[in-house]
Amino acid sequence: MIRRLLFLAIVLAAAFAAAPRRWLPSALAPAQDALLGASAYREPPASEPIDVRDVEPPCANEHPEWREEQVIEGVTIERSPVCEPDNPYFIAAVVKGTSNVSMDTLMRAGMAPDAVVKENDRDGDGDPDDVHIKLEVVELNGRSPDTLELLLQYPIAPGISPGFWVFAPKGFGMATRSLEDLRANPLYRVPSPVIRVEQGDTVSITLENTHYLPHTIHFHGVDHPYHFHLDPSDLKTRVGNDGVPETDEMAVMPGESHTYVFTPRQPGTKFYHCHVQPQAHLLMGLQGIFVVEEGRPNNWVETLNPGAGHVRHSSVAVREQYEREYDLHYMDLDKSLHELVQQANDPRLIARAINRTYNIAHRVASYFLLNGRSFPFTFRESLVVVKPDQKVKLRVLNGGLSLISLHPHGQALTETHLDGIEVPPAAQVTRDVVAIAAAQRVDLLLDTTNDGLHSYGDGVWLFHDHNEHAFTTDGVSPGGHISAIAYESYLDATGWPITHGIDWRPFFSPDYYRRKIPVWVTYDDMRMLGEAGSVTPSPRQVVARMLLAGLLLGMLGAAFVRPKRRRPRL
Amino acid sequence: MIGARILALTALIAFGAWAEETPVDHAHHGQAMEGMRMSAAGMVMNENTDRLPRDCRQISRDVDITVRAGRKYAAARPGTMFAYDQPVWDSPACARVTVTLINDDQVRHQWMVHGLPRYLYPEGMFHLEVSGGGKESGTFIVPSAAKTYLVHCDVPQHAEKGMKGELKVAGGDGDLPSIPGVSAPLEPDRYRTRWDLATLSLGAAAGLAGALLSARLLRRR
């Protein structure tokens, strides 16, 4: 009996000692404090030191010579004072046509000689009227049977490399930069290149399907016949021209090619994309801006603009009204779709994962891209660089699913064209939030006249979607497709904007987007908002709780296990 | 592919080609290259018809290899999409090899061999490339050592999806990973498992036998 009472007392005492303070009646709490000494001041843990590792330089400054205005193959290429300007040899090759430039230019551009063939000035106005473009299909950040490292590496932000499929200009040679440098060669990037032709040109676009799944091209909003006839005298042989495997044509299978032919009669900013399983293929990156430029004499257009961005050789009609021109291609991605190509190598397993396992009904956008990159990489190549008193043309496509509410700090934008069709001048709206739904295009006039309406003057004015989700990369801010309208007076010699706020180093570390770096770390010299350290548990509390747990375990054991009776020894 | 590249690099180092190479020519897009022929139909890079590898006194013989490339050659191997008509080619030491690549698809294919001595072949590479429906030939001279060279198509995902092979000089020195029909991948895919009754019964029987055995052994004590 005494033993049992003693046991009960021990259990009660242990429970009293082990109970969290807030569970006890207020009269008893001080007694527990007295027993454990918990009410004595214990210093909260100090802030942990923060190690910002693997920081890459904001601007590698690989090709400073590409920024200057230059003339290559007789093509004038506008100055482009950003950190990573487009390769001017590439621009020269696509303006003249890869069939009309020197071997040296072609080698520097990295394109096949038949990538962009321009010929036949049929109307004698000084520019070629037959354009033949060849596009291949390329997988970025893809899978290998021999390593878990990704192939054709293309990070959209530090440490983030989703799988992509893109249309790419027909290339040659190695797909990586070299045998040792496994980054994708610069031709292979997101988004698919902007295609630019002149109104009235006969445009042939050959899809050479180098990919392991079927694809097509649908030219959205670009004037094209549903079918065309290879031989005009034989109207029975129809070639599909709308890019829809369910209606006008068979899909282009791996290793096959298909040519689309049309003569666009109306100018404007249009769209092209794959129409095979669009809920996956289009969002995987098989989409691009298609621009039909107004017809003018001697109008040599920049037929391909890889990765969109600054147009360094604008058409004659654009130059009549604008000093600069930018193609801005927005996308949003659900990372769970883009991981699927990295999880298997067998095309059948990839097809099953993409078409049947993945369910777009459960889609959540995780990454937001402008011209194929997220912040801070957007600042390397997709700044809208301006000077005061300029008129700048922005061609904007929303290639994602989220509604974009595009907002420039310090300026108001005028909507001149919707889906490539001009808004009557009297009806044009100037505003500071431009709404763009999926697949819509809006042409915007950015007027940098400092009049308090169109512009408030020089600066590095943020240019972003006011849907705050798009401010983030997988929920971490700042990320997403934030960019800026940067006045040249605020750019340094490498094209990097001169800022007056926090240190950007953490944004160039993969750890930042893995949520390992406290956000305020660069705000706070005194580190009062750093990472709170950890505490060691009080030994007395640990002893009390473990003792109680042991007693309860023992009670349970006693209830179920009968002691063995020893056989009396004889 | 990287694994194979690393393998090729390691092999290079092993043969000492690394030490005796001329300065590394980071020849890639954006730079002109020597020994290159290019046309709309295709290109040949680092062709070499007469310069001998240092370990060869003379060309031992001329070897002609015809390679066909296309999706149809992958049809017989489940899980691939592109292939050469055969995955392995042989050559004697110090042979002058002329490869003719015939492309039976309508897209670009390549026959790119890695790991050759860099003092003769920039980046250790000989490369044939042919547009859809085309045909191109090129010649190079192999060294004397018994070595297996990686051959692949570097159009994105073609090697991964089956267009990969090996050139064995003087019998080669083993097989590279994930050569279709020859060797297993280092990171194989996982497929659904379907159990048949026989395997299931065998497994159950083995389990039961194990249980009985341990019970028996323990009881003896």
The biggest sheet of chain A, with number of strands, parallel, antiparallel or mixed sense and barrel status, is: 8 strands, mixed
Query: Can you write the helix and strand succession of chain B as a string?
Result: HHEEEEEEEEEEEH
Largest binding interface between chains: A-B, 59 and 55 residues
Mean pLDDT of chain A: 93
Write up what this structure looks like.
The complex is a heterodimer of chains A (570) and B (221). Chain A is an alpha+beta fold. Helices cover 17% and strands 24% of the residues of chain A. Chain A is built from eleven helices and 29 strands. In chain A, strands 16, 17, 18, 20, 22, 23, 24 and 26 form an eight-stranded mixed β-sheet that branches. In chain A, strands 4, 5, 6, 8 and 12 form a five-stranded mixed β-sheet that branches. In chain A, a hairpin with a 2-residue loop joins strand 22 (413-418) and strand 23. Chain A starts with a helix and ends in a 10-residue tail after the last helix. Chain B is of the alpha+beta class and 221 residues long. Helix content of chain B is 19%, strand content 27%. In chain B, the strands form two sheets. A seven-stranded mixed β-sheet of chain B has the order 1-2-8-7-10-11-5, covered by helices on one side. A four-stranded mixed β-sheet of chain B has the order 4-3-6-9, with no helix packed on it. The longest helix of chain B has 24 residues, at 197-220. Chain B is elongated and about 80 Å long. At the A-B interface, helix 4, strand 5 and helix 8 of A face helix 1 of B.
Concise overview:
The complex is a heterodimer of chains A (570) and B (221). By secondary structure, chain A is of the alpha+beta class.
Task: Please give the structural blueprint.
The complex is a heterodimer of chains A (570) and B (221).
Chain A: H1 2-18, H2 29-36, E1 47-48, E2 70-72, E3 75-77, H3 88-96, H4 103-109, E4 116-119, E5 130-140, E6 164-169, E7 194-198, E8 202-208, E9 218-220, E10 227-228, E11 239-240, E12 257-262, E13 268-273, H5 278-281, E14 287-293, E15 304-305, E16 309-310, H6 316-321, E17 324-333, H7 335-338, H8 347-357, E18 367-370, H9 378-381, E19 384-386, E20 391-398, E21 404-408, E22 413-418, E23 421-422, E24 429-431, E25 434-436, E26 441-447, E27 460-465, E28 483-487, H10 510-513, E29 531-532, H11 539-560
Parallel strand pairs in A: 5-8, 7-14, 17-20, 19-28
Antiparallel strand pairs in A: 1-29, 2-3, 4-5, 5-6, 7-15, 8-12, 9-13, 10-11, 13-14, 16-17, 17-18, 20-26, 21-25, 21-27, 22-23, 22-24, 22-26, 27-28
Helix pairs in contact in A: 1-11, 3-4
Chain B: H1 2-14, H2 17-20, E1 36-38, E2 42-45, E3 62-70, E4 83-84, E5 88-91, E6 96-103, E7 109-113, E8 126-130, E9 135-141, E10 147-152, E11 164-169, H3 197-220
Parallel strand pairs in B: 3-6, 5-11
Antiparallel strand pairs in B: 1-2, 2-8, 3-4, 6-9, 7-8, 7-10, 10-11
